[in-house]
Amino acid sequence: MSQLLVVGSVAFDSVETPYGKREKILGGSANFFSISASFFTPVRMVGVVGNDFPAKHVEVLNARGVDTEGLQWKDGETFHWSGWYGDDLNQAHTLDTRLNVFETFSPELPNSYKDSSTIFLANIDPELQLQVLEQVPKPRLVACDTMNFWISGKRQALLKLLKKVDMFVLNEQEIRDLSGEKNLLSAVEWIREQGPQIIVVKLGEYGAMLFTKEATSWAPAFPLEHVRDPTGAGDTFAGGAIGYLSQVDDINESHLRRALAIGSVMASFNVERFSFDNLLQIKPEDIQERYEKLRKMVSFEDGPLPIRSL
Amino acid sequence: MSQLLVVGSVAFDSVETPYGKREKILGGSANFFSISASFFTPVRMVGVVGNDFPAKHVEVLNARGVDTEGLQWKDGETFHWSGWYGDDLNQAHTLDTRLNVFETFSPELPNSYKDSSTIFLANIDPELQLQVLEQVPKPRLVACDTMNFWISGKRQALLKLLKKVDMFVLNEQEIRDLSGEKNLLSAVEWIREQGPQIIVVKLGEYGAMLFTKEATSWAPAFPLEHVRDPTGAGDTFAGGAIGYLSQVDDINESHLRRALAIGSVMASFNVERFSFDNLLQIKPEDIQERYEKLRKMVSFEDGPLPIRSL
């Protein structure tokens, strides 16, 4: 069985959306990723928290097969992000970012993590993402995320990292900014030349696309009556997709396409409620049911169309 | 065989996009719809042109099985729209709208059109859309489009029209403005209560969704390396979808979903070049090939997912 490792943030979020307001709820990319991926595989988590972090949450993670040996505890406060969303829930507005113990984070892997075969480098400084990779000798699949802050501020480190990355997960604006290409297919081609051969472009409420040399895939977003808090959607998506991929024998087109749809389904559960409120209460049959609905939404009948010759 | 009728504009467009500039090229909703639909069925066109309209273009339409008996020729100039698109090709900016002979357009159907069974009411004054419907006693499927100008300016006439419409085709902003609902599913529910039981929401570069009481479908847009002019994409989409539907025995979910994908494919050809430059040169096999590619892009394997019980 493949061993899945994630490095990223473990955080408190204070969030306001048109549907409510929450103070210091649990968040962070490593957290969203792990809880989502735990539906498909055990996970090894690398991150840092302060001594204000609730032990109870760590118990929740452990109970789901998330190994927290790589979670560092430091004197001080846990990373705390505050922000809000307006009617356009695709757009997060940051009010305050207190890095706290995350500011001096240096990812050190326990020995027991070093045989990890699948790695997800969530959105952190690309120099730290590289530092993690250096500690894992033989990964089968390396995936990473990033953000505009690193695209503009640490471009060289990011490009160095990309040479070692198989699967790059980013959003539309990020891929355009990094590549300098307006057309999505041209941007994807540019990224491919930097290293990653699997490129996932997250489209928010429009789903996500996946590009390989051989094929293009698209999973729509699952249509929802209530989107209450989009925080963590991207990492929940990645957790579902990469959690699934870490368990398949062969990273082929069929599995990649399935991973894309699973990611979309997992993200849909996440955004329906704040923090992990929904992810921690859904059942395997809920995931299966939504996957089947998504599959049917885009199932077009095969065979010749009745096209006239003109 | 079902008889398909379209009423809409036949126009000259002067268009500038980041990829070029064209003066007084052929356009208009009835034109885009008809040329697209002609790949699937003969079409009956209702519209108005001035005596500056090129007879050669009418010959092109006739050669494709588009009946122009319902095309009125008036003294004066043909409707002329001028506009431009910036990098966001989803957003048209109007520079000038000269209605010319279209200003006093009163759709009168030739007797030979009155047994039409499928009708597409392209985006014109809802009072004129109603006037067309009154002349066709027994349609099987009535579809219509609209725009913000009528949503705010002729709301009552539009709501009166919708009671007689089976299939409503509109974009995201329009459905939100008309319904007053921000959530798409709530907006769709609101529209359904006004009459139309088939609701198609066009998402521009993200494809289109189709809602019935029973199911939701989504066709992505076909990814393109070159989008040169999005003018007419919505009507070309409608032409493909409704042209196909006019020929099927039964308007069921399977055919509706196929229609959605066909619409997306037809629109993708349209936007690759200006005016009808691409639509008039593609072959049946081009349509079939792109449909198959679109189908594969969203083909997710059936069967149980390897979900852990937690």
CATH structural fold name of chain A: UDP-N-acetylmuramoyl-L-alanine:D-glutamate ligase
Count up the helices of chain A: 10
Low-confidence stretches of chain A: none
Gross morphology of chain A: globular
- Within CATH, the superfamily of chain A carries the name Ribokinase
Beta content of chain A comes to: 15-25%
Q: Kindly state the number of beta strands of chain A.
A: 13
Class from secondary-structure proportions of chain A: alpha/beta
Q: What are the secondary-structure elements of chain A, in order, as H or E?
A: EEEHEHEEEEHEHHEHHEEEHHH
The proportion of residues forming helix of chain A, as a percent range, comes to: 25-40%
What is shown here, in short?
Two copies of one chain form a homodimer. Helix content of chain A is 34%, strand content 24%. Chain A is α/β, with parallel strands linked by helices and 310 residues long.
Protein described:
The structure is a homodimer of 310-residue chains. The first copy, chain A, is α/β, with parallel strands linked by helices. Chain A has one domain (4-297): 3-Layer(aba) Sandwich (UDP-N-acetylmuramoyl-L-alanine:D-glutamate ligase), CATH 3.40.1190. Chain A has 10 helices and 13 strands. The first copy, chain A, has a 9-stranded mixed β-sheet, with helices on both faces. In chain A, strand 11 and strand 12 form a beta hairpin. In chain A, helix 6 packs across helix 7 (184-194). In chain A, 48% of the residues are buried. At the A-B interface, helix 7, strand 13, helix 9 and helix 10 of A face helix 7, strand 13, helix 9 and helix 10 of B.
